[in-house]
Design a protein that fits this description.
Blueprint lengths: L2 H33 L21 H9 L3 E6 L6 E7 L7 E6 L10 H9 L3 E5 L18 H16 L4 E7 L1 H10 L7 E7 L5 H11 L5 H19 L8 H5 L6 E6 L8 H9 L4 E6 L7 H4 L1 H15 L2
Helix pairs in contact: 1-7, 2-3, 4-5, 6-7
């Protein structure tokens, strides 16, 4: 081989190594952004300040003052202590709801939903997901490892309230995805129905959408970077991002599910709910809320939200 050809091959090899290093570095950066719990500039933080102008003011005020029991379990993986608040119904009942919060939120951020279900006569259990709130955890799982944590919370509800328990699972955003992902695993027969609000089709879809929407990365750039992130996530967090799929999980669900999504959602785009809705195998209902942005359907249309949830529960939770 001539010296010129050798220089060309060394140049190409050096360029390839530089590209691999750059992709790996970018993957590590976005892994920290997406998977490591910390302040995120693109996510509004839970607020403890109540304003009377808030359309859900009464619900949130009730949650602040209502007496709560503090429950704990060990995560399904066995290495984290998880915490939750439990609020018994005003009258003794076997009906309970497990409420799952969103990305970088906590159980306190779900107070208005707790009030909604409590007013409908349900016992309410609100966990902090792993790596959120007061629960332990190193990395965010986007609902994939959390689905087994949810099953442990469900079993604890059954143990507390008896074998005749009737349980509903509800979640918003990441909590909505957790709800859908949980629907695809084997669950106790006491689980009767699911309600998900603005959950994504899959972690991979959501990461790819945000890479384009928030960071404006072209497809040729974000594809290898997302591959590197997925590989890092596998070694650090235990799964490839492609595995965490609401759609694939819903293919195994035969229980009733209500899908809610804001028509103006630009964080988890509205097309995702249509794909999720098509995937589930059980009885299903879909409500796209006019003018609602991400995770604001309840605040946008409080009366209609209550009515949809109540009608669905009355139909399927006997």
């Amino acid at each position: 081989m001539s010296k010129t050809k050798k220089r060309v091959w060394w140049g190409l090899a050096s360029l390839l190594v530089l590209l691999l290093v750059a992709v790996g570095a970018a993957g590590a950066y976005f892994f920290n952004v997406a998977m490591v719990p910390s302040h995120k500039s693109f996510v509004s933080q839970p607020t403890t300040v109540l304003k009377k102008s808030d359309p859900l003011y009464r619900e949130k005020k009730w949650f602040k003052t209502v007496k709560k029991e503090h429950w704990t379990i060990t995560s399904a993986s066995g290495n984290y202590r998880l915490v939750a608040d439990y609020i018994p119904a005003a009258k003794k009942t076997t009906k309970s709801v497990l409420i799952c919060h969103g990305f970088m939120q906590n159980k306190e951020s779900m107070g208005a939903y707790a009030a909604l279900f409590h007013q409908l006569g349900y016992n309410v259990l609100l966990p902090d997901a792993r790596a959120h709130g007061k629960s332990q955890g190193k990395y965010i799982g986007y609902g994939w490892p959390e689905r087994y944590d949810a099953r442990k919370w469900i079993k604890k509800l059954i143990k507390h309230n008896g074998q005749h328990s009737r349980i509903v699972m509800f979640g918003v955003s990441m909590g909505g995805a957790t709800t859908m992902m949980t629907s695809g695993i084997k669950l106790p027969s006491q689980v009767k129905a699911f309600i998900e609000d603005c959950g994504y089709t899959s972690l991979q879809d959501e990461l790819d959408y945000e890479a384009g929407h928030l960071y404006h990365l072209p497809w040729l750039v974000r594809t290898p970077v997302e591959g590197a992130l997925s590989l890092i996530n596998f070694f650090k967090n235990g799964f490839f991002t492609q595995q965490a799929s609401s759609v694939k999980s819903l293919h195994h669900n035969h229980r009733p599910m209500l899908f809610i999504h804001g028509a103006k959602d630009t964080f988890v785009p509205t097309w995702m709910v249509k794909k999720n809705y098509a995937a589930t195998r059980g009885p299903k209902e879909l409500w796209i809320v006019p003018k609602a942005v991400h995770a604001k359907s309840f605040a946008t249309a409080p009366a209609a939200y209550r009515a949809h949830v109540k009608a669905f529960l009355n139909k399927y939770v006997k």
